[in-house]
Amino acid sequence: MKKTIHFLFSVFLIIPMLAVAEDVIVTRNFTALWDQPLHQNQGINLQIVHQSAGEKVGVAYWFTYGDDMKSAWFIGIGPVVGDRVEMMLYEATAVGFLEPSNPDDNPVGEIGTMTIEFSTCNSGEVAFSTGITNIGSGSFPIERITDVHNTHCTGGVSDDTRPDTLMSEQRIGLMSARQDINGSGHADFEERADRTEFSVEVEDLVDGSYRIMVGGIDRGEIMVALGIGETEFRSPVEAGKVLLTFDPRGEIIEVHDGQGAVLSSGNDVMAGGGGCTNNCGGGSGRGGSGGGPGLDFGTVDIEVELNNQGVHAAASGDAKLEPRDDRTDFSVEIEDVPVGSYDLRIGGDIVGTIEVVTMPDGSVEGELEFRNPVEPGKQLLYFDPRGQQIDVLEGTTVILEQLFPSG
């Protein structure tokens, strides 16, 4: 296969540059022809595809030879798991040249398994196991020899970012997770069409080495000196940062020492990502990314007053939705309640916190603003408030409420 492919592509094929020698995540940019450098004219055509249910799946066509010295091929299909594609292996038998299609005949049968594990964007290792005589089990290295037109593999999460992705950013706080810890910190996430960045910053911790845990998985080290420390991840990677090969959205973020968690995001998670199913607003953070850009908020402005539940006699508030061609704004404002923090619950989920303060004119009020696309000072509008129950909570007590109209 190697000689054949190099001959066919020798006029215009450009071999991609070597990726940074770090762990990688399999993305759509791993779609390529992969040569078996130790074997004559053999290799794999790998495609990373999107199934209708949303799964990222690998489909491999393994071109090799049978006992009769004639060309043969096997089919591998299976999910992408981090830096691997874990496949079931199939073979088609008893099919003639240009044999007519017969929907009642299924000549494809399962023969074993195949796992492709990548160490860089350009190299990997294949392990296979079959029950076929003279094939059995084994492994071999593979090397990339093609790229999809106008793509470049970085090995990071940004390779799977849609080109029409809107810029978004968000932050969640990291609070002390043990009584003997006085430190604090925060985690930032920013997504753009051309890059994705994630960072964890801490302060007031004892100097030393700590581990960053995201969703219970160790994602790297953070060094603390003079009480402060920061680790920055980026895809594509750049000098001084670590390649971002995971999505922190929807996951609990913690900083650990040898005894366990010292800082934690608690119940707050960043909006979007595969793991976000509840409380996706990330507390009182700076907004987020994920579900928001895909929502249709209609074209009608909606504004309603919130009903006072009698806890504070003078309390009042309103909720407002303002869709526009280029953006959608949603806000909840409350006033004439004691200064403090009030959770905003929409459709049963806490989506943020309203901070009530005394204004220069002596009035007491607070407002929480959402926007899609997000902008500094506001949170990402990743939910649709229409038809949802809106509650303003003082602790666990509802002080203002309203069923937001559906249109």
Description:
- The chain has 3 domains: 2-155, Beta Barrel (Lipocalin), CATH 2.40.128; 168-264; 292-403, Immunoglobulin-like (Sandwich).
- It is mainly β and 407 residues long.
- The longest helix is centred in the N-terminal third of the chain and has 8 residues, at 2-9.
- Mean pLDDT is 85; it is low at 1-22 and 274-294.
- Strands 18, 19, 20, 21, 22, 23, 24, 25, 26 and 27 form a 10-stranded mixed β-sheet that branches.
- The termini are far apart.
- Helix content is 2%, strand content 48%.
Question: Which SSEs are present, and which pair or pack?
Answer:
Layout: H1 2-9, E1 32-35, E2 43-50, E3 56-65, E4 71-81, E5 84-92, E6 108-120, E7 123-130, E8 137-144, E9 168-176, E10 184-191, E11 196-203, E12 208-214, E13 217-224, E14 228-235, E15 242-243, E16 253-257, E17 260-264, E18 302-305, E19 307-308, E20 316-323, E21 328-335, E22 340-346, E23 349-358, E24 364-372, E25 379-380, E26 389-394, E27 397-403
Parallel strand pairs: 14-15, 24-25
Antiparallel strand pairs: 1-2, 1-8, 2-3, 3-4, 4-5, 5-6, 6-7, 7-8, 9-10, 9-17, 10-11, 11-14, 12-13, 12-16, 16-17, 18-20, 19-27, 20-21, 21-24, 22-23, 22-26, 23-24, 26-27
